[in-house]
Design goal:
By secondary structure, the protein is α/β, with parallel strands linked by helices. It has nine helices and seven strands; from the N terminus they run βββαβααββααβαααα. A hairpin with a 2-residue loop joins β5 and β6. This is DUF429 domain-containing protein.
Length: 305
């Protein structure tokens, strides 16, 4: 089977139709941990067989994943890539990422650039300096320090996250940086990667889907787990047998034996197989609530309708 890096079709201008069919799929389980090689990073890919982890000597770093994605861009790999992170903060509910601040970015790309500027000196593509910024920190819930503009309860959600709640899922606000379920750090570090990739790989729905080459989408691995028959409260798979049973529900062959079966590895393996199973459903590319404003400011989780 030919790997994604072996094919380099020439890119052609123009928007793709909903009938585009990818031949390779990948899922990246992300981590916002401010260390060189976060244990939570995992990458899996799948073509027409069973999914397999993509290994990296010494473990993955965010810089290493950026290099891998750049390679896919350079070779114009025919791959749909799911990133398990939020590519933007809530905007639509308040018509602003940071209400009351005159310098608040007006769209996602400006947000990515702002996070990059404020975290430029943080090693390992971390984003600690961004959340410690005097103005930005007012909007985040941090350890022992809840910003005065965070608000009450769960924190603000994006429109697609509200749709997830309506469907029975439990998304967490990107403004929450506390607890095992927090996703804010992952999202902010991911924004630094998206900023550096800008123009190299289209990110749906901020960009139209091209006719050739790789495309990035946001995924929520719990959606993949539910689709694979893993019931609520047991969305994490930690052994080969459980993983293969879930893959079979998605119509996938068994996975390639893995050196690890932690939450992150199995999330990536299942996520890649799920993308292959659902990517050609036109409805997932055209959610009714995905307006031009939402696409420009908040983005959307692939698989939410």
């Amino acid at each position: 089977m030919v790997g994604p890096g072996d094919a380099a079709p020439a890119a052609r201008p123009g928007r793709a139709t909903l009938t585009r069919r990818f031949t390779w799929f990948a899922a990246i389980d992300w981590s916002g941990q401010a260390v060189a090689r976060p244990a939570g990073l995992a990458v899996a890919e799948v073509g027409d067989g069973g999914p397999a982890l993509v290994a990296r000597d010494g473990g993955w770093s965010r810089e290493g994943i950026l290099d891998w994605l750049t390679m896919l861009a350079d070779t114009q790999a025919d791959m749909l890539i799911g990133l398990d992170l939020s590519p933007a903060l809530p905007f639509v509910d308040a018509d602003s990422y940071f209400p009351g601040w005159t310098e608040s970015p007006t769209d996602a790309r400006a947000l990515w650039a702002m996070v990059e500027r404020r975290a430029a000196d943080d090693p390992h593509l971390a984003a600690t300096s961004a959340v410690n910024d005097a103005e930005l920190s007012r909007h985040f819930r941090r350890h022992r320090a809840c910003g005065d503009l965070f608000g009450q309860g769960r924190g603000r959600l994006r429109l697609c996250e509200e749709r997830q709640r309506a469907a029975g899922f439990s998304p967490t606000s990107c403004f929450n940086l506390v607890g095992a379920a927090q996703v804010g750090k992952s999202s902010l570090t991911g924004m630094r990667v998206l900023h550096r990739l800008d123009g190299r790989i289209p990110v749906w729905p901020f960009d139209p889907v091209p006719e050739t080459g790789p495309v990035l989408v946001e995924i929520y691995t719990t959606i993949a787990a539910r689709a694979a028959g893993v019931r609520a409260g047991r969305s994490k798979l930690r052994d080969a047998e459980q993983l293969d049973a879930a893959l079979a529900v998605l119509g996938s062959p068994p996975h390639v034996p893995s050196p690890r079966y932690d939450d992150h590895a199995t999330d990536a393996l299942l996520g890649a197989a799920w993308l292959r199973a659902v990517a050609h459903d036109p409805a997932l590319w055209s959610p009714p609530a995905l307006s031009a404003q939402v696409a420009r400011t908040e983005g959307w989780t692939f698989g939410v309708v």
